Every structure is written in C-alpha cells, then in structure tokens.
Amino acid sequence: RKTFTRDCKMADRANPPAGRKQRTNPWHVAAAIGLSAVALVLTAGAILSAGEANKGDWDSLPSLCELDHAGYDTAIFTPPTNLASPQWVMGAVLITTFILRKHVFEPMASRIYPDMPAFKQTKIANYALELVSETAGLVAISWAGCWQLFFAPEELVASPSAIVSPDVAKDLAVASNLMFSILVSSSYILQIAFDTQIRIELALHHWTCLLLVMWSFGVQESVKNNVYMLRCVFAMTLYLLTEQLVFIELLCYQKNIRSATLFKLNAWFYALSRPAIAVLSLYTWWESKPVFFDSGLPNNTFVYALWLFVPIGNVILNATQIATVQSLFGIAKKVALEKTLEKAKAGPAAEKELVTIAGLSPLESFAFDDPGALTPSPSSGSSG
C-alpha cells in the first residue's frame, strides 16, 4: 500500500492534474545559476583583462629551437587549440572506451544482473566504465608525480616564475591528457549519451567537469605550465578520481553482496573526503593568485574567468554530491536493518523502518533511479 501511494505521488509530480501548478525542480534552478555564474565570471574576466590587472615581471622562455637542440620534446608546447595536438591518441582512446562501454560492460551487466530492467543495466555498465576510467586516471597522475604538486611544488620549478622544467612538463602533460581529455571526458560523454534517464544533478556534475576540463587545458598553455596553476587544476580532479568505492558498493549491493559495517565506513569516507578536497582545492586556488595578478603573464579574459570560477565549481560539485552522501548512509542503514530483520524474524517495528528507508527519494534516485527499487524482497531482502 505504501509503495502504491508513493508511486501515485511520483506520478502526480511527473504529470500534475490540470489546474495544479507544477513545482520548479531545484536542480533546474541550480543549473540556471551555474550558467549565470559562467557568464558573470567571463564578464569579470573581460574587465580584468581590459584593465590589465596582471602586472609583474615575466621570465623569458627558451625558444622551441633551443629546446629541441637541447634534446627536449617540443610537442608539449603545442597549444591545445592547434590542430597539431594529439588527436590520434584522443580518437584511439575514445574508440577504446566506447568498445568497453558498448561491447564489454553492457553484455557483462546483462549477464551478471539478468533480472534487472534494461535501463538499470545501462546504469550498471556506466558505473563499471567510470570505475575503470577513474582508476586509470588516478594511476596516470600518480605515475606522473602529480602528488608532488601538493606536497613539494617548489622542487618542480625551473625558474623564479614557477615554470616547471621541460622534463616535468612532459610528464604532467601526458598525465593531464590521459586523465582529462581521454579518460574522464570520454567516460562522462558516453555516460550522458547512453543514459536516457540520467538524473539532472548527475548531468550537472558531469557537464561542470567537462567544462572545467576544456577550460583548464587552454589556461594551462596560456600560463606556460605554471606549477601553482597546475596544482590548482589537479586538486579539483580529486573530486573525479576518488569515487571508486561508491561504484564498487553499488555493484556489490545490487548483487546482494552486503556488509553494513563496510558500507557505513564507505559512507563516512565519502562524506568526509568531499569537504577535505574542497579545502585543498580552495587552498591551492588562493595560492595560485599571484600567477593571475602578479606574474606579468598576458592578460586574458578566459584565464581570469577560470580563476574566478574555481570556487563556484567547488560549490556545484559538492552540491551535486549531497544526494550521494544521503544515499550511502541510507543504504548502510537499510543493510543493517535487513540483518536485524533476519535475527528478529521480520519484526513489525524494524520492517516499518526498513520500508521507510527504502522509500527515501535520494536513495531511490541514486540506486538506478527506480521508484521502489530498494524495496526489500519478502523472501531474501534483495533489492530486486
């Protein structure tokens, strides 16, 4: 009865009766505010650029011929907007991720989760793809030594203007290409393309990440790979590269592989790590301020605008993860109550609380967007 009532309410919200005013989706409002913020920071960037706010002395850099004569790979100094950039690598990995998503993870989802509807299997395949791509991105930044950007950036600089040496610049360029344009971008684009019922907050999260990826590539070239700018960019990538445990939990949960203790620990890790990343990101953002205002770099609207947008991007990314945090704690509590039900032989009080938790909107939307998807099975307590 409760499930039927809840479904009726959701149907009314989706198709309100004639004469009833439909409530505005708060995520639509958030998306509009985000777009307005982009326009605002671009306007502010244009004003700062026109006023030549960045004043200071800029170290002269060696020419490409001098670097080539010294034995360095000059390809890393090709502007990202130049058609000579590595399109082949991007194309090859995009095709590879598509093959993984379409012809590996999708058949695996249908085999491992045969009782689930097709749209749920689509989401499972997306989670598997994101799990692989995020892990590969984390390996890439670790291999390139990006952690040193956080703990000892001064050891990477090769000039008073905090420009990294050509060797270090090559490693960081490889890492950023693999992590951003190849692994994260291709993964997010494919998720948006395949998931026709994607939640608006998840779509907002992905589009914000894609915007920051494309934006930061151009800015990194404009500031000549300044180490403090690189550090600011890599700090924000930690939002994207530290969600593996969430996807592992969801995949295990839907296969009825459950541990209330581990799920609760995972919920706390995710809940505490998001603010920690925000603090790190804002700290590195403020530390990069001299790059934009005191370095003597060319005044550029998009460079200023990106620096102004970083705090707004942090707010958006954290806001879109609120439902995830609620869901993780809800799943952990539900699994704990399932164990209680097994011991108490389905006592009425625990059963009532379990049904209430299963009906939580954030939990339903996070666990494959299906109303009642987490309603326990009478026999096994499985989500079905």
Detailed description of the structure:
The chain is mainly alpha-helical. Helices cover 71% and strands 0% of the residues. The protein has 16 helices and no strands. The relative contact order is 0.12. The C terminus is likely disordered.
Task: Give the topology.
Elements: H1 2-14, H2 26-50, H3 64-69, H4 87-112, H5 118-143, H6 147-151, H7 166-194, H8 200-222, H9 227-241, H10 244-254, H11 260-287, H12 289-293, H13 301-319, H14 322-344, H15 348-358, H16 361-366
Task: Give me some keywords for this one.
single chain, 384 residues, mainly alpha, disordered C terminus
> Number of helical runs?
16
What is the H/E string?
HHHHHHHHHHHHHHHH
The oligomeric state is single chain
Overall 3D geometry? globular
Low-confidence stretches: 359-384
How would a crystallographer describe the biggest sheet? Answer: none
Structural class: mainly alpha
Q: Work out the radius of gyration.
A: 24 Å
Termini Cα gap: 18 Å
Mean pLDDT: 76
Q: What fraction of residues sit in β-strands?
A: under 5%
Number of strands: 0
Helix percentage range: over 70%
